[in-house]
Write a structure and sequence with these properties.
CATH topology: 434 Repressor (Amino-terminal Domain)
Number of domains: 1
Oligomer: single chain
Number of strands: 2
Strand content: 5-15%
CATH architecture: Orthogonal Bundle
Distance between the termini: 14 Å
Amino acid sequence: MKNRLKLLRAERAWSQGDLAAHLGISRQSVNAIETGKYDPSLPLAFRIADLFDARIEDIFLRDVEEQGA
């Protein structure tokens, strides 16, 4: 799943470690989410959305291949 997490993090001048600390997860997990190697659980997605005062749909975007399914 594609996402805008890296962009949102950069807008706040946060490192991956900073974001990880805000979310209570590891920096490696932040990296995996940003690179699309890991899709967060729904509770984590809500925490991310709340942190950035955004909707989940505004942060996490479906891949083109997924939209046809």
